[in-house]
From TrEMBL:
Membrane-spanning parts: 6-24, 45-62, 68-87, 99-119
Annotated organism of origin: Polaribacter marinus
Protein name, UniProt field: DUF423 domain-containing protein
Gene Ontology CC annotations of this record: plasma membrane
Signal peptide start and end residues: none
Amino acid sequence: MENLGLIFGAFYGATAVIFGAFGAHLLKKKLSIEQLQSFETGVKYQMYHAIVLLLLGFQVNFNIPIHIIYAFIIGILLFSFSIYGLVLSSTKNKKLKFLGPITPLGGLFLVLGWILLLYEFVS
């Protein structure tokens, strides 16, 4: 699907703004400083990679392989959304601990996306 980067880039960008506002206004009173920083990290990484997906989706002068776009899509989903789940579940003292190992897995997918992109540029 050739518009996948654009579709997910726009979706992740919009939800990053929504989650950022949610964290800044509604969660600020309910979260500790550490929890709020974790939530903000998820939002920042989501927005950064949403922009990357949009740029890759436009494929300016490049024919970007779809597996690179998939790596970023999966990475954002696993990394940022697991952080949101961990932080929000901890506010109710029912931390979803199974999400803990998912966060670094998402980070690995993000790194993989960058490495694949680098490989694409140098090969």
